Amino acid sequence: MSLTLNIAQERELRRLIEYERSTCSVNNDLVYRVAFPYRPDNDLQVELIEAGALATKDDNVHGTVVVITSEGYSYFPALARKEREEKEQSHREAHLMGLTALFSALCMLAGFLLGYIVR
Predict the structure, then answer these.
(1) Where are the domains positioned within the chain?
(2) Which of 16, 21, 48, 88 could cross-link to 54 by cystine, CB 3.0-4.6 Å?
(3) What's 41's DSSP letter?
C-alpha cells in the first residue's frame, strides 16, 4: 500500500468516495467521476493531494478541480487486504505456538516415561 493516511484523512477520503458512489453510480457501477472544487484553504484536501489520494486538474469551465486518484480508490481495499493478511498471520503464529506447546508436552511425557522405565 503506497498511501499512509491518518484517521481524519481516511474519513475525508471515505466521505468523498461515498459521495461519488452515491451520486454517480447506477447498479453499483460508476458511470462518471466527480470533480470537487479545489480549496487550498482546506487542510485535509491539501494533505490528501500531497499524499496522492487526490489530484488537482485544470478545467476550462471551473478552473482547478480535485479528483480522486487510483491510489485513493484502492486505499480502502488495500487496507482491508492488509488487515486480513495480518489477522491470518497472527492465526498462523498462534497455531504454531500451540503445536510447539503440544510437542513440548509430548517430549516431557516421553522423557518422564523413559526415566521411569530405566529406573
Answers:
(1) 7-74
(2) 48
(3) T
**114 membership: H or E segment, kind and range:** helix 70-118
pTM (2 d.p.): 0.69
Cα R_g (the chain), whole angstroms = 26
- The candidate with the shortest Cα–Cα distance to 9, out of 117, 17, 87, 1, is 17
Q: Which candidate, 66, 50, 69, 46, places its Cα nearest to that of 58?
A: 66
How many Å apart are CA 89 and CA 24, to the nearest integer? 38
Torsion angles phi and psi, residue 24, rounded to 5: -120, 10
Per-residue pLDDT of the chain (119 residues), as tens digits, is: 578 899 999 999 999 999 888 887 777 776 777 888 899 999 999 999 999 999 999 888 888 999 999 999 999 999 999 999 999 999 999 999 999 999 999 999 999 999 888 87
Residue with cell 480522486: 68
